[in-house]
Design a protein that fits this description.
Pfam families: AOX. With about 350 residues, the chain is mainly alpha-helical. It contains 13 helices and no strands. The chain has a domain of about 190 residues: Alternative oxidase (Ferritin). Helix 9 runs antiparallel to helix 10. It binds fe (ii) ion (2 copies).
Length: about 350
């Protein structure tokens, strides 16, 4: 037996949900009883109301649709079909904007937009190195150095494949750091100083490196399996490291970026020697870095290497050594958002 409170709740829920759940059936009966102008009025209301239009587009039975078409004059022409297609597209009221390139041609990438593209700053110093001084610095440095050995053994001089595989790891720290800073901002009711955005930008940029290199080198099944395993280990290890010490985590990433610069420099040497073919640049790279139409793989590696140098700077800067030694917190030092 229901208590009075429970009965009230049930009544209220049924009162709210009833018309929604049963609206189709009600409409079917009522429209069938209508004639002429009344039918037209109902049809206008169905199609013109954003709420009812959307709901009926999803819940109407075939019979309902036929009645609706009949009410609007039975003009089931090609134009009518295109109207129906439009209804489906606008189901959630979202129309994808038409995006064009500077020359007016259609923008073909959904994964990034023209306003996210940029020209890489190739003048950046590629040789900058943070000399490890503190215990944490040395720990970070030797952790990264020790990871390089198995990587060298596994990939040898297959730099295309190496780049693709390493980018699957390189895109993790920015996302983990950004996510944890996001949660910290929520927890503490405080601003992030732009660091969430800066780190997520870095993750996105690294992922674009991967999207580029997978056009050049296709992963084999055992390489995919390796990525699966390494991601599981690295994501969790970096997550815990960032929780324990953002200073250490950013320092590790700073050194990883230094290694990435080294790898891409070796990649360029192989391209110049001709041991790796300097193929045409993938279309995605040409649009993302605003490269000339005749750009080659060498141009792509140059801009990616410049990106890595920027990530190196951001992470060494973010490493709490650089910021906390000045008595500041990360949020107090404005993040280099949009630093490419
Ligand atoms: Fe990268
Ligand atoms: Fe990087």
């Amino acid at each position: 037996m229901m208590s009075r409170g429970a009965t009230t709740v049930v009544r209220s829920v049924v009162g709210q949900m009833g018309p929604r759940l049963f609206s189709t059936g009600v409409m079917k009966t009522s429209t069938a009883a209508l004639v002429g102008s009344e039918k037209a009025m109902v049809a206008w209301w169905i199609t013109s109301s954003p709420v009812n239009g959307a709901r009926n587009a999803s819940t109407m039975t075939l019979g309902d649709k036929q009645q609706k078409e009949e009410a609007v004059g039975g003009s089931a022409t090609a134009a009518g079909s295109s109207q129906k297609a439009k209804e489906v597209v606008s189901y959630w009221g979202v129309q994808p904007p038409k995006v064009t390139k500077d020359d007016g041609s259609e923008w073909k990438w959904n994964c990034f937009r023209p306003w996210e593209t940029y020209q890489a700053d190739l003048s950046i110093d590629l040789h900058k190195h943070h000399a490890p001084t503190t215990f944490l610095d040395k720990f970070a440095y030797w952790t990264v150095k020790s990871l390089r050995f198995p990587t060298d053994v596994f990939f040898q001089r297959r730099y295309g494949c190496r780049a693709m595989m390493l980018e699957t790891v390189a895109a993790v720290p920015g996302m983990v750091g950004g996510m944890l800073l996001h949660c910290k901002s929520l927890r503490r009711f405080e601003h992030s100083g732009g660091w969430i955005k800066a780190l997520l930008e870095e993750a996105e940029n690294e992922r674009m490196h991967l999207m580029t290199f997978m056009e050049v080198s296709k992963p084999k099944w055992y390489e995919r399996a390796l990525v699966f395993t390494v991601q599981g280990i690295f994501f969790n290890a970096y997550f815990l490291a960032y929780l324990a010490s953002p200073k250490l985590a950013h320092r590790i990433t700073g050194y990883l970026e230094e290694e990435a610069i080294h790898s891409y420099t070796e990649f360029l040497k192989e391209l110049e020697k001709g041991t790796i073919e300097n193929v045409k640049a993938p279309a995605i790279a040409i649009d993302y870095w605003r490269l000339p139409a005749d750009a080659t793989l060498r141009d792509v590696v140059m801009v990616v290497r410049a990106d890595e140098a920027h990530h190196r700077d951001v992470n060494h800067f973010a490493s709490v050594t650089d910021v906390h030694y000045q008595g500041l917190e990360l949020k107090d030092s404005p993040a280099p958002v949009g630093y490419h």
